[in-house]
Design brief:
With 297 residues, this protein is of the alpha+beta class. The chain has two domains: 13-103, 2-Layer Sandwich (Phosphorylase Kinase, domain 1), CATH 3.30.200; 106-249, ATP-grasp fold, B domain (D-amino Acid Aminotransferase, Chain A, domain 1), CATH 3.30.470.20. It has helices at 52-66, 91-94, 119-128, 167-174, 176-199, 250-257, 272-290, and strands spanning 13-17, 21-25, 30-34, 39-40, 43-44, 75-77, 98-101, 105-106, 109-116, 130-131, 134-135, 145-151, 154-155, 202-214, 217-221, 230-234. The strands form four sheets. Strands 8, 9, 12, 13, 14, 15 and 16 form a seven-stranded antiparallel β-sheet that branches. Strands 1-2-3-7-6 form a five-stranded antiparallel β-sheet. Strand 14 and strand 15 (217-221) form a beta hairpin. Helix 4 (167-174) packs across helix 5. The chain is globular, with a radius of gyration of 19 Å.
Length: 297
C-alpha cells in the first residue's frame, strides 16, 4: 500500500495545497485529492497515516450523499472510473481518495457546531459561563451534552489558530442573509448526522462545516463529518465528566501533548505504534459510519 504525501500530477495545475488536501484545476471543475498527511496544533506532521486519505474521502462522500436533502454540495463525480480521461493515468494515486467537484468561492468561516462541551468550549465556559454567544447552565461537567446544539463560528485563518467570532460579527463580515442561512443549515446537518451516528454507536461531540458559493447558490463543500473535522466518541463508553476515548485525531493530539515537543517547532515523527493506532481509529470510524468493511488494498 502506497502512502500518499505530496501530490504532483503531470500537466495539471495545483491551485492549493492544504494541510491534508491537494486541489487541481480541471477545465470547468476541480479535482480534490486527500492525502495521508495529518496535522495537529497548526502543523503538518512529518508522519503519514496508512489509508487515511482514502478513509477521509470515503467518509465525506458518504455524508455528502446522506445529507444532500438538506443542502446541495460540491460533488460532481466520486467514481474514479467515471473521471475525465486525462486523469486515467493517475489511477494509482487518485482511486478512492479523490473527487471531482464544482468550483466554488469558499466563505472564510469555520461553521462549528457543538453538541457537547469539550475542547476550547470547556475552557471558555469555565472562564465566563458562556460558549460563544450562548450563556450556558451552571454546573455543566466536562463532556456533558449541551441542552441544544449551538453554532459557534470562527474565522478561517491561512496560518495559525482560527479565531472565535460572534454571530453578529459574522453577519457584519459576510452579511445577515448568508450567516442566517449557513447557521440554519449547519444545525440541521449536525442534528441529522448526530442522530444517525448515535444509532451506529458514535457520539458526534462537535464538528465543523464549510460552505461556498457556486452559481449564486450556497453549497456545502470541503470535507464533512470526518475524524479530522469532528470529535467522535464511543457511545457505549461515554461518561460525562471524564476524558472520552475517541476515534478521531484527538488521539494524536493527546500523544503530542504528553510528549516533549513544545508545539512551537518542527514536529517530531510519530512512533509506529501511534501511527498504527491512529489508522485503526480512522478505519473504525469509517466502518461504523458507512456500515461497510474497509478493504485494505
Amino acid at each position: 500500500m502506497k502512502l500518499i504525501g505530496n501530490v504532483e500530477l503531470e500537466n495539471l495545475q495545483k491551485i492549493k495545497s492544504g494541510k491534508v488536501r491537494e486541489m487541481f484545476l480541471l477545465d470547468s471543475s476541480l479535482l480534490i485529492v486527500t492525502t495521508d498527511r495529518i496535522s495537529a496544533f497548526d502543523y503538518i506532521l512529518p508522519s503519514l497515516i496508512p489509508y487515511k486519505g482514502i478513509l477521509l474521502n470515503q467518509i465525506s462522500v458518504f455524508w455528502f450523499n446522506y445529507l444532500s436533502d438538506i443542502i446541495e454540495n460540491h460533488l460532481i463525480e466520486t467514481d474514479f472510473d467515471k473521471f475525465p480521461a486525462q486523469l486515467k493515468k493517475f489511477r494509482d494515486i487518485l482511486k478512492n481518495r479523490s473527487v471531482v467537484v464544482k468550483k466554488a468561492n469558499i466563505y472564510p468561516i469555520e461553521c462549528v457546531v457543538r453538541g457537547y462541551i469539550t475542547g476550547s468550549a470547556w475552557q471558555e465556559y469555565n472562564e465566563s459561563g458562556k460558549i460563544g454567544d450562548f450563556a450556558m447552565p451552571s454546573g455543566l461537567k466536562f463532556a456533558d451534552r449541551l441542552p441544544e446544539p449551538i453554532f459557534t463560528p470562527t474565522t478561517k485563518e491561512v496560518s495559525g489558530h482560527d479565531i472565535a467570532i460572534t454571530i453578529n460579527k459574522a453577519k457584519k463580515i459576510f452579511g445577515t442573509d448568508v450567516i442566517e442561512f449557513i447557521h440554519d443549515k449547519s444545525l440541521k446537518l449536525y442534528k441529522k448526522a448526530s442522530e444517525y451516528a448515535l444509532k451506529k454507536g458514535i457520539i458526534i461531540a462537535d464538528t465543523k462545516f464549510e460552505f461556498g458559493n457556486a452559481d449564486d447558490k450556497i453549497i456545502l463543500a470541503d470535507e464533512v463529518l470526518t475524524p479530522d473535522s469532528s470529535r467522535f466518541w464511543f457511545l457505549d463508553e461515554y461518561i460525562p465528566g471524564e476524558q472520552q476515548r475517541s476515534m478521531d485525531k484527538q488521539f494524536v493530539r493527546d500523544y503530542l501533548l504528553n510528549s516533549s515537543w513544545d508545539r512551537n517547532s518542527i514536529p517530531p515523527e510519530l512512533p509506529q505504534e501511534i501511527i498504527k493506532k491512529t489508522s485503526e481509529r480512522y478505519v473504525l470510524a469509517y466502518e461504523k459510519i458507512t456500515g461497510k468493511k474497509f478493504s485494505r488494498f
